[in-house]
Amino acid sequence: MTSVLPIALVGAQGRMGRFVEGWLAGHAEFAIVTRVDSDQDLRSALRGSPARVGLDFTRAGLGASHGRILLEAGLSAVIGTSGMDPAQDAELETLALERSLGCWVVPNFSLASCVQQRLAEQVAAWFPEAVIQEEHGIAKHDVPSGTSLETRRRMEAVRGADAAPIPIQSLRLSGVVANQSVVLSGAGEVLRLVHETYDRSAYGPGLERVLREMATLVGFRRGLDALLGARE
Q1: For residue 228, which of 126, 110, 147 has the smallest C-alpha distance?
Q2: Residue 33 φ then ψ, to 5°
Q3: CATH number at residue 166
Q4: C-alpha span between 189 and 57 (Å, rounded)
Q5: Is the pLDDT of residue 82 over 80?
Q6: pLDDT class for 59, splitting at 50, 70, 90?
Q7: Which domain holds residue 187?
Q8: Contacts with 93 (C-beta within 8 Å, 6 or more apart), sequence order
Q9: According to the 3-state scheme, what is the secondary structure of the chain?
Q10: pLDDT for position 230
């Protein structure tokens, strides 16, 4: 018989929180046992919770502090909140290892978005010019998006210190879920890597796979690359 992974959902009343609630309801291997709203004190809400994993979808910029609270409460942490700076990774990795827990920062749960980032990283050094264009709904307040910042970080890491910074163009439009284009240009040609999200169901398969691995993960991960295999 498959064991059930008990989960604390932080940001349960937000857009992603409501999606996660509905998505996981169809998967018997997961159970949301604790729900925390944005107006609740997280540390108090987790006291006595039977959850083994905390899944955070709150406001941009809260990922690091919520990750610390989850780990200190004895829960492995999945941080899906946007705006988590890679400079904050080391502290969460140390906390996770000290407590034999897992911590996984996921700026975007879309597997296709992860493929786009990997392709952009692979070809970034081949083209002298690059720009990232990201589009989200008008309710998304953080600009640029966490996904675009992560894409730029990975691209600039392989382009070298002498390359020009990669600009990010951000749009907030009604009717949009999440789109990103990486445009690279050279002499006489342009390469466009386009990822479009039409519904939040695009995040479901990646979320499922992350949660399955969280049952045994000890240590720290960032992004979905571990699900796609090692980079060459």
Answers
A1: 110
A2: -105, -15
A3: 3.30.360.10
A4: 40
A5: no
A6: confident
A7: 111-198
A8: 103, 219, 220
A9: CCCCEEEEEECCCCHHHHHHHHHHCCCCCEEEEEEECCCCCHHHHHCCCCCCEEEECCCCCCHHHHHHHHHHCCCEEEECCCCCCHHHHHHHHHHHHHCCCEEEECCCCCHHHHHHHHHHHHHHHHCCEEEEEEEECCCCCCCCCHHHHHHHHHHHHHHCCCCCCCCEEEEECCCCCEEEEEEEEECCEEEEEEEEECCHHHHHHHHHHHHHHHCCCCEEEECCHHHHCCCC
A10: 52
**pLDDT of 228 over the 90 cut:** no
CA distance 65 to 159: 32
What's the mean pLDDT in 62-76?
A: 95
Extract the tokens encoding 173.
Answer: 């439009």
Mean pLDDT over 121-141 rounds to 94
For residue 98 the two structure tokens come to 């000290």
Residues 186 and 206 occupy one common structural domain: no
The length of the chain, given as a count of residues: 232
Do 84 and 138 share a domain, yes or no?
Answer: no
Distance in angstroms (rounded) separating the CA atoms of residues 193 and 115? 10
Let me know: does 73 contact 46? Beta carbons within 8 Å. yes
Q: Each residue of 163-193: pLDDT tens digit?
A: 899 999 999 999 999 999 999 999 999 999 9
